[in-house]
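B., you asked whether I could sanity-check this one before it goes into the benchmark set. Here's the sequence:
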Amino acid sequence: MYDKAADFLEPIDMSEHLDKIELYLGQVCQIAGISKMQLDYWTNKAQIPTKGKKQRIYDMEALETVMLIKQAKDKGLNLGAAIEAARTFRAMKTPVA
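And here's what the prediction gave me:
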């Protein structure tokens, strides 16, 4: 009986739902592999948009920006250049409407 019920189901494309996910500062740090102090500093310096009043909440775009900055820093860029590289990279991949 359960086998037939499973036949009604279709695969779910999780990437279509990522824009609804919101992460707290600690979760972003864990995913990106950086400290809370770094994330705080980068958020201010790169003006990464966050939600939340008492605690910053990051969406997937903000997380991607943080991870791109981390990648650029790991490749030897200073923070200013890493922020600029992340912005440029995101602008290149964002389709123009």
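One thing to flag: The helical segments are 2-6, 25-32, 36-45, 60-74, 79-93. Otherwise nothing jumped out at me.
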